[in-house]
Amino acid sequence: MQRLLGKKAGRLAADRARGIDPRPVVPRNLPASAAVGHRFTSHTLDGAVVRATLLDLVVQLGLHLRRRGQAARAITLTLRFAGGTTWEKTRLTEPSAHEDDLRTVAYQLMDAAALQRARMTGIVLKGEDLIDAGQVAEQISLDAARESRLAAEQAMDRIRKKSGPDSIGPATVVPLRRAS
């Protein structure tokens, strides 16, 4: 290699081919935001369909943030309407990647839109101002229902990790066998 490339470049190429690299490893910074979205196949007026889609986006965003070890300090909801108009609003929140917290903020944002008969074409939910989840202080909670939901969320994350990311979601129907 030294004969072909020269002394310095040849030695460098040979070392790298052997896996020798004296440069320090610098961890890659994760992006400061994460977004998930859904585009409706047709204009949607049904509020129940929109809420179900928003709940699905909350689950996807929470899972994405927890996998990356991050928590969002702000949530942005963007609604796209027929005719090309958009509505966007951001709300600051306590740093969290839990679906329970994200759902509450997302529903507050959706209620703030005060939609009556809007023909929607898409929804985007974005977690912004992300921080490392290790920096989030965990408070002692006396709310047994919330603690149960968080424990269920952890169990669902473990199931998803074992069986694939799209195997269990908010609208998944799990076939049950008849007991004999």
TrEMBL record:
The keyword NAD does not apply. InterPro entries: DNA_pol_Y-fam_lit_finger_sf, DNA_pol_Y-fam_little_finger, SulA_CellDiv_inhibitor. Gene3D superfamilies: DNA polymerase, Y-family, little finger domain. Residues 37-141 form the DNA polymerase Y-family little finger domain. Keywords: DNA damage. It holds the Pfam family IMS_C. The keyword DNA damage applies. Residues 157-180 are annotated as: Disordered. This is DNA polymerase Y-family little finger domain-containing protein. It comes from Streptomyces canarius.
